Amino acid sequence: MEVERVQTIAFSSILVDTIPPEFIRSEKEQPALTTCRGCIPQVPTIDFSDPDEGNLTRLIAEASSEWGMFQIVNHGIPTEVITNLQKAGKEFFELPQEEKELYAKPPDSKSIEGYGSKLQKEVEGKKAWVDHLFHNIWPPSAINYQYWPKNPPSYRAVNEEYCKWVQGVGHRLLSLLSLGLGLEKNELKENVGGDELKYLLKINYYPPCPRPDLALGVVAHTDMSCITILLPNEVQGLQVFRDDHWFDVKYIPDALVIHIGDQLEILSNGKYKSVLHRTTVTKQMTRMSWPVFLEPPSEFAIGPLPKVINEKNPPKYQKKKYCDYVYCKLNKIAQ
Ligand code: OGA
Ligand code: NI
């Protein structure tokens, strides 16, 4: 079956200056009608190089409880590592369509890995203005190189390099978030799978869209991961939902955007909030982003941590295996 990618649709849409009806969101979702402009509260920006660990822990715990999202600057990943990763990802998406299709997610595959567009239409039969590539980057036992582009030839090396650095940021975040729950530094990591914790990379490719007022990139969702470490390109587009409104998350050069995902909300028994977010698209520019999802191994069970619950704070979530959680979420079955 031939699947039409958004990148191809975008190309012909620009010529006619309209978009196919399945990309036009309902009025409840259209970004032009639902984005709050003017006096905009901003997600917190946190200096990750702050030598005062107590202060850093407090800032991260507050941002995770109040927003479920924050940006970190001075994260320590060298600029070159980031620009190389972004260049290789961009070169992959600029390859001829037939070459990208070599990495397409097989229709019968149970894993999320591979190149594609979201195949099933959402409720109301709408489609998202974005293509993607998913592949695991850690641990080595989870890696399927068949989904790592061979072109550009630098792709593997630059991804392996980024993986090393992003793990450093991930471990540090987990230990600060652990301290923020009143636990020992390493406790949270142990409770999300320890050394088996999986790092899943996604590249989002949002082509220019003639009607950015009517379409959305990824639609409103919370991430299923523990945490997500997202690297955007320079094009504005991420939005966060707070106090019943959608707000732009300002693009900050050299920052990483951290999302609290569903598993961390569950582990913390609701102290940290899994953040509702979505993305908009633009008329002239291609937006790209590289989220890395930190996920428990699929058979690993996640529930509220015994040390955070007590009589006054009884468990609000069921304990279940991560794979069962994912199954319910993807099939819209109550957790
Ligand atoms: C996602 C996501 C946001 C972005 O892929 O889960 O939320 O900025 N992406 O691209
Ligand atoms: Ni997301």
Can you put this structure into words, describing what you see?
With 335 residues, the protein is of the alpha+beta class. It is built from 9 helices and 13 strands. Helix 3 (53-66) links the parallel strand 1 (45-47) and strand 2. Helix 3 packs across helix 6 and helix 4 (79-93) packs across helix 6 (155-180). The longest helix is centred in the middle third of the chain and has 26 residues, at 155-180. The chain is globular. The chain starts with 5 loop residues before the first helix and ends in a 5-residue tail after the last helix. The model has no long low-confidence stretch (mean pLDDT 95). Residues 202, 204, 218, 223, 230, 232, 237-238, 277, 279, 289, 291 line the site of N-oxalylglycine.
Poorly predicted ranges (pLDDT <50, ≥5 residues)?
Answer: none
Cross-sheet strand order for the largest sheet: 1-2-9-6-11-5-4-3
How far apart the termini lie comes to 34 Å
Return Rg in Å.
Answer: 20 Å
Bound molecules: N-oxalylglycine, nickel (II) ion
Number of alpha- plus pi-helical segments:
9
Write the layout of secondary structure elements.
Blueprint: H1 6-16, H2 31-34, E1 45-47, H3 53-66, E2 69-73, H4 79-93, H5 97-101, E3 114-117, E4 131-138, H6 155-180, H7 187-190, E5 198-206, E6 227-232, E7 238-242, E8 245-248, E9 256-260, H8 262-267, E10 277-279, E11 287-295, E12 301-302, E13 320-321, H9 322-330
Parallel strand pairs: 1-2
Antiparallel strand pairs: 2-9, 3-4, 4-5, 5-11, 6-9, 6-11, 7-8, 7-10, 12-13
Bound molecules: N-oxalylglycine and nickel (II) ion (NI).
Residues 202, 204, 218, 223, 230, 232, 237-238, 277, 279, 289, 291 line the site of N-oxalylglycine.
GO biological process, one term: flavonoid biosynthetic process
Protein name: Fe2OG dioxygenase domain-containing protein
Domain Fe2OG dioxygenase: 196-296
